[in-house]
Amino acid sequence: MGERTAVLPLGARLTDDGPATASRAQPVVARRRISVLGATGSVGQSTLDLVGRDPAMFELVALTGNSNVDALADLAVRHAAEIAVIADERHYGALKARLAGTGIEAAAGPAALAEAAMRPADCVMAGIIGAAGLRPTLAAVSQGRRVALANKECLVLAGRIFMDAVRDAGTELMPVDSEHSAVFQALAGADPAAVERIVLTASGGPFRTWSREQLARATPQEALCHPNWSMGRKITVDSATLMNKGLELIEAYHLFPVEPGQLEVVVHPQSIIHALVAYRDGSMLAQLSSPDMRTPIALSLAWPARMAAPTKRIDLVELACLTFERPDEERFQALGLARQAMRQGGMAPAVLSAANEVAVDAFLAGRLGFLQIAQLVAETLEMADARGMLAEVDDLGAVLDTDAEARRLALNLLEKWSVPGAR
Ligand code: NAD
Ligand code: MG
Q1: Structurally, how many domains does the chain consist of?
Q2: Do the beta carbons of residue 128 and residue 122 sit within 8 Å?
Q3: Ligand 1 atom nearest 177 alpha carbon
Q4: pLDDT reading at 207 higher than 70
Q5: Do 204 and 297 fall into the same domain?
């Protein structure tokens, strides 16, 4: 990947005196104002589950959703939010009607979403899925407080621009993805020169032991049965293809002070160790927790304090055995494609991610076979390369144009493949 901004020490806050480490900051004691972007989704609901257990500690500012008015309105009322925003403007009337008489503001559309993300809050949970999360998350970053980053696509699409915005605003960025939360903890503010490598673990998903022949016939229902994690549909399919781990490599590259060659993936079917950091003295530090997003979410909300999370506690004796395997990149080609895009840099990760979103939608709609997800991504990348679309760009508009163009290329390919006998 090309040149990039110096990575912010995570959990550090830029002050006039330069970065001050989070460990020197005061533990969280005051009531915290929280906004949740993507409140109706899996990460959003896990966040609100935690917040709802400790109403004395949290105050809800903005909650957002895409189109599910009932779910959004229920959450807004239950958590006494200041404002609820529905991204799809067509649902404004329904949301306003649902919130009438509650004192909760209703708003709709992209501008309202950005305005809500910028409302003063101690922490904004960025839990929107996919490229749609980029602008609202950047809006949250611009207010210069804490952003708890679940939306990995922000970093995949526009890693440099995003990290520059974080640095410029002096925003404290807390990773929410379990692997990156684990790395954050295992790094513990270490000197980057002392780090040899970072190992992200992958569960291997529901098809870890399936042959290519079986994978060719895998159905959406089978892909959506994740053995360990309960998550949204898109990321669950990404976990089955291992694209999720590929996107996480790119995410880690932007978050932590390492080069692509220092990032590894190991399959760990129990999903107990989420990542490890290997140091030059031979030590490896790992973070362990049950596969429940409420642990990394709790860390992102409360750090540098630790708040209670009602997750299953680990019993090492009951577990008895943790196992590790190398990922099979013959069967799971998405991982290699993502690694290649990370090394190539420029707009390659953005094109990879856009094509993958199209492919996953098509797979879930029964229009594409499981193995064709990676194939569609690979061919879209080839076409984008041939059109000179993979060079680095400097502004957000150009990133979003590339994203839209990559989607068009992927959809065109999909159309061609849908013709009987075309493939
Ligand atoms: P989800 O599909 O369950 O929820 C997505 C949320 O985004 C919903 O609130 C939805 O209404 C909203 N949304 C969807 N399209 C939108 C649009 N066009 N405009 C505005 N809002 C829109 O997704 P999720 O599983 O909660 O994942 C959210 C993010 O967190 C993803 O980037 C994912 O990669 C990341 N993440 C999720 C998990 C997990 O356990 N679910 C773990 C790690 C990282
Ligand atoms: Mg993860």
Answers
A1: 3
A2: no
A3: 43
A4: yes
A5: yes
Report residue 135 as tokens: 């602008």
Residue closest to 180 by CA, chosen among 159, 157, 160, 198: 198
Q: Which residues surround ligand 2, an ion (CB under 5 A)?
A: 177-179
Ligand 1 centroid from CA 128, angstroms: 4
Q: Is the CB of 296 under 6 A from ligand 1?
A: no
This prediction has a pTM of: 0.92
The alpha-helical segments, DSSP class H, found in 170-315 are: 178-187, 212-216, 220-223, 233-241, 243-255, 294-302
Interval between CA 290 and ligand 2 midpoint (Å): 13
Question: pLDDT of 123-141, one tens digit each?
Answer: 999 999 998 999 999 999 9
* Residue 152 Cβ contacting ligand 1 at under 6 Å: yes
**Could you write out the DSSP letters of every residue in 362-396?**
HHHTTSS-HHHHHHHHHHHHHHHHHTT--S---SH
Indicate whether 152 and 287 sit together in one domain: no
Q: Same structural domain for residues 34 and 159?
A: yes
| Ligand 1 atom closest to Cα of residue 41 | 4
**CATH number of the domain that 366 lies in?**
1.10.1740.10
CB 350 within 8 A of CB 406: yes
Where is the domain boundary, 319, 336, 367? 319
Distance CA 133, CA 33 (A): 21
Q: Which helix (H) or strand (E) holds 65?
A: strand 58-65
> pLDDT tens, 248-261?
999 999 999 999 99
Q: Note down the domain range covering 302.
A: 181-319
With a 6 Å cutoff on the Cβ, whether 127 touches ligand 1 is yes
Which tens digit of pLDDT belongs to each residue from 71-88?
999 999 999 999 999 999
The C-alpha atoms of residue 202 and residue 328 are separated, in whole angstroms, by 12
Residue 358 tokens read as 């199209």
